[in-house]
Design brief:
The chain contains nine helices and two strands; from the N terminus they run H-H-H-H-H-E-H-H-H-H-E. With about 325 residues, it is mainly α. The chain has one domain. A two-stranded antiparallel sheet has the order 1-2. Helix 2 packs antiparallel against helix 5, helix 3 packs antiparallel against helix 4 and helix 8 runs antiparallel to helix 9. The longest helix has 30 residues.
């Protein structure tokens, strides 16, 4: 009943073109990944508790207040990051309205609704991070969830690009290679999780607004760096092996092209990581590295999406 009312209200909106739906989906990808970058900026500027409570910024106020205990810069950076959540929500809501108004198929609608729902979950995780005093593992979960949203948003984009009239799902590569592509996503998740562990033990605790030090992950950071790098080597090796296999089976050019993009991004990301390690993790490179993680996630999801496409269930008439 409520959904029917929702549909009647949505039907009053202009009918969005396919191009507009694609643009909105791209904006969703950028906002989901972008808020992870701004979160990194919060961390490296030590502004994590610039707003020490949640959902309010300060007790009794949703906006920053002039208190000497918390520097104005830290308040502004953390509050600004919270405001960006509304941009993410608006983008997610816009894509839901667009695909609903266009009466897209069920698969598109499901992925579209995951955007606002996932953003709400992310906001709650952000609140838990603040209320626990920036415990490293809460920050790690918050980041990994952002990357999961980037993956889902990327799949949403490619689902929107497909025609709803095409009913047959066709594999573009043999099933073992598709599974290998899925394994690359799992390995990427391992790389990301290990990266959050490095951050949890590293120098950027995320806050200097309180007297007590933020609890860190009590493992030697060099050990975690080796774990992170070895997982990255495994991920890259799998991608290269997948590339040779795709050429061997004469996979469609689009799959091979997307894989090349992934490998290029991973190599660039590796270079950033090496420079970070050799230069004692400068703050600016942390944000660059987080942006690279989002790019790796989106590019890997794009390869996964290319392994199956929707095609017409019957040959069109040539008459």
């Amino acid at each position: 009943m409520l959904y029917r009312v929702f549909l009647r209200l949505v039907d009053r909106l202009p009918l969005p073109s396919l191009r507009m739906q694609k643009i909105l989906a791209i904006i969703v990808i950028l906002t989901q990944g972008g808020i992870a970058v701004t979160g990194a900026i919060v961390r490296v500027t030590a502004s994590g508790l610039g707003c020490p409570t949640w959902p309010q910024c300060f007790p009794g106020s949703f906006t920053p207040v002039g208190v000497s205990e918390v520097p104005v810069l830290h308040q502004a950076v953390e509050f600004g990051n919270r405001l960006l959540t509304f941009v993410v929500v608006l983008a997610a809501a816009a894509v839901v309205l667009a695909v609903t108004r266009a009466r897209r198929r069920r698969g598109v609608l499901v992925f579209a609704w995951l955007m606002p729902l996932g953003t709400v979950v992310q906001a709650i995780l952000g609140g838990v991070t603040v209320l626990t005093g920036l415990l490293w593992w809460t920050v790690a979960i918050h980041f990994v969830a952002s990357m999961a949203m980037v993956w889902l948003a990327t799949l949403l984009y490619f689902k929107i690009c497909e025609r709803d009239s095409d009913l047959l799902v066709t594999k573009t590569v043999p099933e073992p290679l598709r599974l290998l592509t899925g394994l690359s996503g799992i390995l990427l998740a391992g790389v990301l999780i290990a990266g959050t562990m490095v951050t949890g033990a590293g120098p950027h605790a995320g806050d200097k607004s309180i007297d007590e030090p933020v609890p860190r992950f009590q493992v030697e950071v060099v050990t975690l760096v080796h774990l992170h790098s070895q997982l990255l080597v495994g991920y890259l090796a799998l991608l290269i092996g997948l590339g040779f296999a795709l050429y061997a089976v004469k996979a469609p050019e689009i799959v091979k092209r997307r894989l090349k993009i992934v490998v290029a991004i991973v190599l660039a990301q590796s270079l950033v990581g090496i420079v970070q390690y050799l230069t004692d993790v400068p703050a600016a490179l942390v944000a660059v590295h987080v942006a690279g993680a989002g790019a790796c996630t989106a590019a890997t999801a794009a390869v996964w999406a290319a392994c199956r496409v929707r095609t017409p269930s019957v040959e069109p008439s040539r008459a």
